């Protein structure tokens, strides 16, 4: 793969200053005057140290390969990811099958270190490589009447032992409002730690929307469809009372069966205490305007 490593965005760029500054800097700042603007919520010590390669590639959710956390690492090796093409259709100027190599030759790969918060109340920090979804959509040309983006995962029973079981209605589908899809934090990941994306993480191309629960970040994408109506999403179809279309990380809106106020960081060891979950997973400054005036309890 023609891998261009362009570290155009670092943790400092994507993280609110109050979050990025370490404890020593915060304390030094508080000792001085005029730091009122920094004295915000207690998120100042949240760190963005990436989880290990081992954690990120051995503790996965990818139900097409089984529902156990180690099933994807054990079973996804058999998935054929080349050749690969992504059909981009619906309300676009240039619908068609886009070849993965072709897409890669036109995109600039960046590193994005993002928090990943699963709806099951665990989290990791992942150093993705990828490009903005907006750039991919620009290849196809979004027509003005489009308002939503639908995504679909590969369905290939010969290589996906998990799809023999009706845990979900296959293929796995997800969706975003167009403005969410075009937001600069929304990326299509193609790698991890500068290496090609492992199959268990959604090779060769997977969505990453860091302010939403992990299940929105659909893996091994084969179709992207622009439309003017809200598309169905797998977990919402399966359990509509528990999983909404928006699925924004929100510590004040609990899952009907468990609290979302805190999370367990993977890699912290068996006895590590839970840490508070942040509004929009810590990306509030960047994305809250998308939801101005919306009732986030109703639109969960
Ligand atoms: N196609 C597909 N995409 C998926 C899933 C899945 O089961 N199938 N699981 C989701 C869930 S619940 C989470 S938390 C993330 C996990 O991503 P990771 O394994 O790379 O950490 O992938 C999401 N994308
Ligand atoms: Mo998840």
Automatic annotation (TrEMBL):
Query: What are the entry keywords?
Result: Metal-binding, Molybdenum, Oxidoreductase, Signal
Q: Name one Pfam family in it.
A: Oxidored_molyb
Q: Which cofactor does it need?
A: Mo-molybdopterin
Q: What superkingdom does the record give?
A: Bacteria
Please list the reactions this protein catalyses: L-methionyl-[protein] + a quinone + H2O = L-methionyl-(S)-S-oxide-[protein] + a quinol; L-methionyl-[protein] + a quinone + H2O = L-methionyl-(R)-S-oxide-[protein] + a quinol
Set out the biological process GO terms recorded for this chain's protein. Answer: protein repair
List the coiled-coil residues.
none
Return one GO MF term: molybdopterin cofactor binding
Note whether Signal occurs among the keywords.
Answer: yes
Q: What is its EC number?
A: 1.8.5.-
How is the cofactor bound here? Binds 1 Mo-molybdopterin (Mo-MPT) cofactor per subunit.
**What does the entry list as the binding residues for Mo-molybdopterin?**
60, 63-64, 118, 153, 201, 206, 217-219
The job of this chain, per UniProt, is described as: Part of the MsrPQ system that repairs oxidized periplasmic proteins containing methionine sulfoxide residues (Met-O), using respiratory chain electrons. Thus protects these proteins from oxidative-stress damage caused by reactive species of oxygen and chlorine generated by the host defense mechanisms. MsrPQ is essential for the maintenance of envelope integrity under bleach stress, rescuing a wide series of structurally unrelated periplasmic proteins from methionine oxidation.
NCBIfam families registered for this protein in UniProt? PRK05363.1
Subunit-structure text: Heterodimer of a catalytic subunit (MsrP) and a heme-binding subunit (MsrQ).
Query: What's the family?
Result: Belongs to the MsrP family.
Listed name of the protein = Protein-methionine-sulfoxide reductase catalytic subunit MsrP
Organism source for this protein? Sedimentitalea nanhaiensis
Lineage start: Bacteria, Pseudomonadati, Pseudomonadota, Alphaproteobacteria, Rhodobacterales
């Amino acid at each position: 793969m023609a891998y261009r490593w362009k570290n155009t965005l670092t943790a400092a760029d994507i993280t609110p200053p109050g979050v990025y500054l370490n404890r020593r800097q915060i304390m030094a700042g508080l000792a001085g005057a005029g730091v009122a603007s920094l004295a915000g919520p207690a998120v100042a010590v949240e760190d963005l140290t990436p989880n290990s390669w081992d954690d990120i590639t051995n503790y996965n959710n990818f139900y097409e390969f089984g529902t156990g956390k180690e099933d994807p690492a054990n079973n996804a090796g058999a998935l054929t990811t080349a050749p690969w093409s992504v059909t981009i259709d619906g309300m676009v100027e240039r619908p068609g099958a886009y070849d993965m190599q072709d897409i890669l030759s036109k995109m600039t790969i960046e590193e994005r270190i993002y928090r990943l918060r699963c709806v099951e109340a665990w989290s990791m920090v992942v150093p993705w490589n990828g490009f903005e979804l907006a750039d991919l959509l620009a290849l196809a040309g979004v027509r003005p009447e489009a308002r939503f983006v639908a995504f679909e995962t590969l369905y290939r029973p010969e290589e996906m032992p998990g799809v023999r079981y009706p845990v979900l209605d296959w293929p796995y589908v997800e969706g975003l409002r167009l403005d969410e899809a075009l937001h600069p934090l929304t990326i299509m990941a193609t790698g991890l730690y500068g290496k090609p994306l492992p199959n268990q993480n959604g090779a060769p191309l997977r969505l990453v929307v860091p302010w939403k629960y992990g299940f929105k970040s659909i893996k091994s994408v084969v179709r992207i469809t622009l439309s003017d109506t809200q598309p169905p999403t797998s977990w919402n179809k399966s359990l509509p009372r528990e999983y909404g279309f928006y699925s924004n990380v929100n510590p004040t809106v609990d899952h009907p069966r468990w609290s979302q106020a805190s999370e367990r960081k993977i890699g912290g060891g068996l006895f590590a205490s839970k840490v508070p979950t942040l509004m929009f997973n810590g990306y509030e400054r960047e994305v809250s305007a998308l939801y101005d005036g919306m009732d986030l309890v109703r639109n969960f």
